[in-house]
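Question (not urgent): is this output format expected?
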Amino acid sequence: MSNVVLYDFSATWCGPCKMQKPILENLEQELGDKVDIKEVDVDQSPDLAGKYGIHAVPTLIIEKDGSEIKRYTGVTSADILSGELKKLF
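Got this back:
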């Protein structure tokens, strides 16, 4: 199991979240088991969203060994995410 996690805080009603989804799917194919991508619906998991201080969706949080490394709000490109994640391997 990877010690690098990418949390995708999103919602089903969120248009930008729908645009982010295929970017994350491609990233998952590219990086395989090097990163654990976890999709979190803020409406279904309000406690987790609160724990991470999520105020807007999509919000992407990269963690390594349980510590937050980087946070992005809004649709984020695969190039930016891939570059940041590859620094952690």
